[in-house]
User: Fold these one by one.
Assistant:
Number 1:
Amino acid sequence: QAMIPVLARAFYSLQNTAIPFFTGLAAAALNVVLGYFLSKSFGISGLVAGFSISNIFNVILLWLLLKPKLRGFPVAGFRGALVKTCFATIIMFVAAMIVGRWLGRFDLLNFSGALIELLVVSIISSEAFIFIAFLVKSEEFEAIRRKVLASFVKS
């Protein structure tokens, strides 16, 4: 989702506001449709899945429409980072779905139960993202990791 504003700003710099608007509109429509159908089978997790899928769709669509306008601009590194991040995000989503389904067996309908479920799903799915980002040698992940480690060393 963080890539959407970056890609939209690239269009804005080219004096084009229509493409980000219409891709956002298409992604919102896809989000509504996926959210409706996936929530019937997966509940809240289906809404999350619809949101994630529609945002990935928006990023891919923006990228495909921007790429021809960037002739001569080195995009290979950006494409690799995008693929690695999308892959790690998909694994994070799968981990969240599995953990959410597993936790669904317990009675977590009160506030504290929902909070526990949120925390457990967030922690485990975030760890899945971090692990995959590490495995695929994401340069962005490495930069963040080095920055965090450096902040601990300075202290």
Note: DSSP finds six helices and no strands in the chain.
Number 2:
Amino acid sequence: IRFIVLFLYWVIIYFIHLSNHSHFLMENSNQGNFAPQAQQAVPAGMDFMTAVKTCFSKYADFNGRATRSEYWYFFLFNFIVGIVLGWIPFLGWLVSLALLVPSLAVAWRRLHDIGKSGAFYLFILIPLVGWIFVLIWLCKETQPGDNQYGPQPLA
């Protein structure tokens, strides 16, 4: 089961990475076309360390927006920490408890980024199908421009 979850996670990360660099593919496919290219409205994303640092600096900040890469890289960090420290009974439990609030905060901000209220994260409590809705929302592309939850995150 852990291998299946890890595989699905890496597929999601791959598609996020691919969508963040799709403007590069479009520019190179039009080598003979000298027409100006439209600028990409969605930010390029952030790397692993920047995402983890951002999530810890906004430890309990449920306001604002978080990009897909910020959310999924922090999810990867939680997954790795959970696997490594899950074998140590008290320490694993303590670290999981410490990561609970920033995990909820970044998920809340991620839902803000697609234009939904963070309270939609509570759909995860609906038995059997709730997590499917939340997963789809967490994978959606950033809503371009400003929305009611704040300006578009830069990266």
Note: Helices lie at 2-20, 22-29, 48-57, 68-85, 89-113, 130-139.
Number 3:
Amino acid sequence: ATVRVVEGCGLAASSSFGYSGRRRARATLLAHPVERAVALERLARLQLWQEAQAEKNLLSLVGQTVTVLLETKSQRAVVLADDADKEGTTLGANAPETDAAPLEYWQGKTPHGLTVNIALPPRGTEKGWSGAMLPVYIEAKARHSLEGRKAGEPW
């Protein structure tokens, strides 16, 4: 029943957990509590279904241009443009072509809250790219995020 409800909502992502028998938890009020093994199996099914939905959602954006609100430098390492096209670098095949030296990996959010990582040249302001709205062409899907490249000028 829970999967049908979540499916009807069209959620791109969700957090889920099993009810707890802890004191003051709502689950303690149930007249016929669900056995722990059954609850865990149901939770696992819900999470597998949600993971598949998230995968579909991310894949639907590959090949699209979306507006991204850049937030902060990504946890990924700084990539030198000279090495960006070599296998084994942080960017690999998705590195943008540029003659400028080091590229910084930034992350931001789509209007629907999905995380996008993008390599950009350093920006000569105190905040860098933080707060910029940028058209981004989505090139690939990572496990829980998207990889893109600059597709227009920021505003």
Note: The radius of gyration is 21 Å.
Number 4:
Amino acid sequence: DHLIYVSLKYTRTVDVIKSIVERLINCIELLITALMDKAMDEKKIAEMPQNVIQKCQLVKDIYHDPMIEEMCNFFLKLRKIDKAQFTRSSEYRRHVTMAVTVEDVVLNIDIDTIKAFYESCKGYFEYVLTLVEGIKEGRVWKGIPHDDTWPNHKE
């Protein structure tokens, strides 16, 4: 939240956009790992692959869920964006843009695009949380564990 709503708003640099892309990649990678852990607990797989691309494919094969498939594809796209060469334009202005070429297509990532990426990631987080923890839809995760082991935990 802070990178989007404070750092990017006030600095308006491509470095912050790049940092946000890296954070989104890390977030989705953790979601994929959580799904893999759940599959291991349910004895659907014997061991977890170390390669992230193999994890994505295995998660798609295990869950057969359009949202999970979309999340994995988005994750792979973000990784390509992160590794691609980029150019900067309009830094320190509202229309700061990081232009990257991925698979012969130029993607212009600006403030609005990165916010949309962030909102997608939040949606994936809430969806995976409902799958992993079995929480009913509509319940908002407060950033604390869902048991009584956390100090001052109140439902």
Note: The chain is about 60% helix and 10% strand.
